[in-house]
Amino acid sequence: MYVIACIYISLCERYERLVALNQRPSYFPRKLLQQNNDHHKDTSAAFRAYRAASFCRETTSDNTACTDQRANYTFGTKEALPEEDPSVIARLNRLQEHYQRSGMRRTCEGILLVHEHGHPEVLMLQIANAFFKLPGDYIYPEQTEIEGIVSRLNERFEPLGNTDPKEREWVIGECLAQWWRPNFETFMYPFLPPHITRPKECKKMYLVHLPQHKTLSIPKNFKLLAVPLYELYDNAARYGPQFAAIPHLLSRFNFEMVDEQGNVISRSVGAPQALDGSDLIPMVV
After folding, report:
1. Where residue 1 falls among pLDDT bands split at 50, 70, 90?
2. CA distances from 25 to 6, 15, 32 (A)
3. CB 139 within 8 A of CB 106
4. Mean pLDDT over each residue of the chain, to the nearest integer
5. What is the pLDDT of residue 21?
6. Three-class SS of residue 171?
7. What is the pLDDT of residue 29?
8. 282: which DSSP letter?
9. Residue 32: CA count within 13 A, CB half-sphere
10. Is 250 in contact with 115 (CB distance < 8 Å)?
11. How far is it, in rounded angstroms, from Cα 126 to Cα 83?
12. Domains plus CATH for the chain?
């Protein structure tokens, strides 16, 4: 009897689910389907138009990242920009002074992407042939995060004697990650431990959309590197856990590789294509 009761209950639950599914609203207007019930070709055309509109919304969403060729950008040099901290210990000491004066430090860094040979690369700065860092730094308490990262990018890359206001403009995208420093130590984590109520620093990484052409001037004491994603991936021993995680952060984006004339020359495998296949272009392999 127990087995029969279980089977009966299971059948009742399935019946209820089927009834609920039949009562759910269709994603395609039911009235339109009824009106075109005798004209299957018209209904099919309307459905294709409906799907095409949905496709357009998907392809213009934020999960597509355009990257321009590295050769599109002009790289120059300018006067050295001295580091505020000669050592890691000095940086932690200054962090402690900042915390006592202004509370938790806020740091913003930019992930700038270019491409070469059909593969995305991240622009990184190298100091003394040893330390790697993304362009950016701590921001002042009175600044918003966007204001802070824009000022830091200009500090790093603005050409000397620049008079063109466009060279000071940056398109800041979404925040891709935030790292927390619980104590006055070198360790940072991509989460805030539950027992930490007063973190010492919060670092955020923003995706920065570069224009098709731009001049970047690098301080003489820095070296600008374009590091491929495959070099960063699973390479915490060389670049540290924060930079080794960048390929994971970017994995949800579909990359479009743009040439010097602004034409899309390749697209990441798996990127959405038009329904009729009219926009097919060579895939990155």
Report:
1. low
2. 31, 18, 13
3. yes
4. 80
5. 40
6. strand
7. 38
8. P
9. 13
10. no
11. 12
12. 65-267 (3.90.79.10)
